[in-house]
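User: quick one
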Amino acid sequence: MRVLVGIDLRGGTELLQRLNRLVPLQGGELVLAHVIDNGARGEMDLARARLVHRPIPRHHLRQVDEAEREAAREALEEAARVAQRLGAAAETVVAEGEPGRVLAILAARRACQLAVVAARSGGEGEVGPHSIGHTARFLLDHSPCPVLLLRRSAPPPPGPPRPGR
Amino acid sequence: MAAAVFGLSMAAVLTRPRGLPESLAAAAGAAVMLLLGLVTPLQAGMALLQQWNLFLFFCGLMAISGLADAAGFFDAAGAVAAGAARGSGRLLLVTVFGAGAAITAFLSNDATALILTPVVYTVVTRLRLPPMPYLFATTFVADTASVTLPVSNPINVLVIDRLHLGLAAYWSHLLGAALAVVVLNALLFLLVYRRQLAQRFEFDWRRALARSVPDRAHLRLICAGLAAIGIAYVAGSAAGVPVGPIALGGAGLLALLSLAARRFDAGRVREHLSLSLLLYVAGLLVLVRGLEGSGLTAALVGRLAGLARGDAGAAAAGLVGSAVAANVVNNVPATLVFLSGSVHLAGLRLPFLMGTVAGADLGPNLTPVGSLSTMLWLVAVRRRGLDVSALDYLRLGAMVTPALLFTAGLALVATFRP
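Assistant: Done. Structure below.
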């Protein structure tokens, strides 16, 4: 089975270990994808354009680009090492754009049978209306294949119903 | 007629038809004012000459930013901020706020928004931290800390020049507000982003500094030069010396220091200089002069100030009016209109314009963009495929900015009580 796994800058290795507990990855084929969210670039342009009409100096844009690529490469290398330890064949992909949209496109292009992402980057393990992030929600709506959302820790079971008055 | 030319010009500045740059739209509007005789060439010339200090300030400021950037000053500031955070994501937000506030205070909001923002983004990306809280922090502090000194925002220079105000008088009304809003802004961000900031990181600031700063001796020289410029700004403002020549002299000093270190990079400096910015401001000055001739600016400001009673009321009216205007058009034309129209306010002029400074400096954080023009830019960017989290920004602005404006208003109004 070919599985697409969305790898964040942090928490990718933990995500794979949790996935392995649910779906043993031994012998599986993984597409580990990190999407550089270019929304942040937009924010920087926003900050600039709001004040004066001058572009961000080119060498700073180069530094930003290098930092994004380097961080993505590190995160994917860590994840690939874990995947290898778990016995899966892993391919790594760095893409750029809105993460949910790009992951949905990747799932279709690579003919994946399952897409796996963290329910929310940071603040996971909680339940409630904010427990699913933008990326996971977009993927749920648009993925061409089944989607598995993983929380950092299993939510506590719901308590017994409160007695009504 | 003047109002129609002004309105059409502002619409062209905001909507940028066929990609027309704002500077050309403003200049074209100014040319129409002249051609229709709504402003005489003499009046236009006088309007521009009166602002010689502002133009010199802009030139000096851009060159100082470029020279400091070429020496790696902003990269060093980012590395020191990350090192001082001692591995705590929360403390990093505080140190980023501190670095942003200091850079904004002495090198203006422009330097923070334009240069510190990508530097901080690079640092937090390498640390693999969620970038948005830090990116929003630099964006916000560029405005929030821009009340601190007369040189922290070109708008302050405009108002101070017109009122012939010294640093002591400026601080007597606005220092309390400036400090209060920076602290409040940092606290609100710590609260809003408490979950994303919970992460820890490892950072070797010496290694980061070695990577991003090409020549330590050059950086030390530039830091000494910047310290001298900072002292000159404060001493000069206190003594009533115009800040434009100080900024230009400071740029000259940094250029000499770079030449002495054999590190002068004309290309880097040129990258920071923008003639279109000067053209944009010049166009606006002539447009507002035309509007002034029609009596509209005086009528608008008179009506606004008429809603208030006493000094405290005038300060509040200036603050709220300019904050709203900064979000409808942009804070530069808004301030020019308020300055022009406040001539007849007599005793209420000082409190009204002090309120204008606070509102025009802090107001742009209210909407995701601070002005309609960048809202339209946002639409254009989205069409190009970039995803900007405007909704997040709007939510943040709606949560934080009213509190900042209210706090600044209270601190300012308190200085006008009998």
